[in-house]
Amino acid sequence: MYGSVGFRQTSVKSICAEAGLTERYFYESFNNSEELLLAAYHAVTTGLLNELTQAVEHIDGNRPERARIMLNAYFSLLKREPAAARIILIEIRGVSRTATQAYTDALHEFSRRLADDFSIGSGDAQQLLALGVVGGISLIALHWIEQGHAQSVEVMVDVALQLTTALL
C-alpha cells in the first residue's frame, strides 16, 4: 500500500484490512506504521542489492559491461516493480529522521558496493565520488518515475552510464 497509495495516505487500519489481519496482530510486530515502512524499505533495498550483485556475478573485469548490466538491472527493477520503486525513492524520504537515515545509509551502502565493484578506491574523495554517482543515478531514476517511465529502460541506462563514465 505504501508503494501504491503512499505512506501518508495509508493507515494501520487499511494495512490490516488489506492483509486480512486485525490491528492486534499488526501491533504485535510493529509499534507504528513507520516501523513497517522501514521494514519494507530494508527488504526492498536488500533485494535490489542482491539483484544487482547477481546480474554481474559472472562478468569479470569489463567495467563498462558490468556498469551497463547493473544499470539495466536497476532500471528494469524500477519499471517492473513500481511499488518497490516508490518505496525506495519517494515514500521513505522526509518521513522522519530515522527514515531519512535509512535512506542515507542505503545510498552509502550502494556507493560502497560501487566503489568496491569498480575499484574506485577507499579514500574519502573516492567514496564521495561513488556517493555522488549513486545520488545522481537515484535522482535520474526519481525523475523517470515521476514522468511515468516516459523514456525506455535502454535510454535511462545510457543516460546513467554517461553520468557514471563522466564522474568515474
Structural class: mainly alpha
**Strand elements, count:** 0
**In which range does the helix fraction lie?**
over 70%
Percent of sequence in beta strands: under 5%
Biggest sheet overview: none
* Cα distance spanning the termini: 38 Å
Instruction: Note the overall shape.
Output: elongated
- SSE topology string: HHHHHHHH
Count of DSSP H/I helices: 8
Radius of gyration: 17 Å
Arithmetic mean of pLDDT: 89
Low-confidence stretches: none
Architecture overview:
This protein is mainly α and 168 residues long. Helix content is 74%, strand content 0%. It has eight helices and no strands. It has helices at residues 12-19, 23-29, 33-55, 63-80, 82-91, 97-117, 124-146, 153-167. Helix 5 (82-91) crosses helix 7. The model has no long low-confidence stretch (mean pLDDT 89).
Outline of the structure:
This protein has helices at residues 12-19, 23-29, 33-55, 63-80, 82-91, 97-117, 124-146, 153-167.
